[in-house]
Amino acid sequence: MPTNMIARECLTQWANTIKPKKFTIPDSYSVGPITNLTNLLNGVFKTKSPSEQSASNSIPQSSWFRGYHFIFSCQQNQQIGSDGYDNYQAPLGDNHHQLYLRRLWARGSIQFIQPPKINSALTCTEQVQKVKPYNDDVFVDIDRKFTSDEGELLLVESRTMLYTNQLYTSNKSPKLTENEPKVTVKISPIDLLKYSMLTYNLHRIHFDPKYAHSVENLPTLLVHGPFQVTLILYYFGLQYPDLIVQQLKYRTYEPFFVNDEAGISIVAKGSNEFQLTLFSAEQKIIYLQGTLKCK
């Protein structure tokens, strides 16, 4: 049997095993992590005082609508893969053999329902919804639902991971934007390390440049997908503090590398609907783009 057919058979077996499973990750919506992430973001955006970051962004309840949920109910890191990330929802063969060398954050959506109470218990329930082979790669869709201790729904998230054995090569025809940045930022290696620590993330492409280059052929470290989402949501909160975010749908296009100067644009698309774009300030290459709906 050809190797690719064996791999597809292993993938099918894994999909049939993983999809019925539910993963429950308890946590508490505590002030400490919220404060640490706020300090990190204020450093990135160079806000110097609470008045500059707006009153609403400084309130822990409002932080829930700015991408802060990513730092709660994180993976437990009990099945570490060769790239450092947890393999608990990664395609595996017999004897937990890793079928793919690399994993990438592809796209996602977030429905913001209501914020948790400060220092209250919350639970995230995760389930793999779809496993979609694409040539020699595979997309894995994961649904996540945050609920309060009383069972109230707080947030619903969908994320899609791309698993591949192809090494990184630069895209010769990347998607570009004509937008001008409202603000520019640079993410340093220290910023990446801080975010990795806040999210209990051991993925080596975010903190180990030798691994990133020698194993995955990346030129340098990558900015985390959820960090990018948080950047655009947090900046939107700075610009529109009175709007309440309801839903974000986004996808990634090109990798956002450490120390690159990135721009963020916000373009109104209708009544309380906005296009948010994170892109290279110099080359106008889009890193991540999403549609945000508010009320």
From TrEMBL:
It comes from the Eukaryota. One of its GO terms (molecular function) is (3R)-hydroxyacyl-[acyl-carrier-protein] dehydratase activity. InterPro entries: HotDog_dom_sf, Mitochondrial_HTD2. GO terms for cellular component: mitochondrion. This is MaoC-like domain-containing protein. It comes from Candida theae.
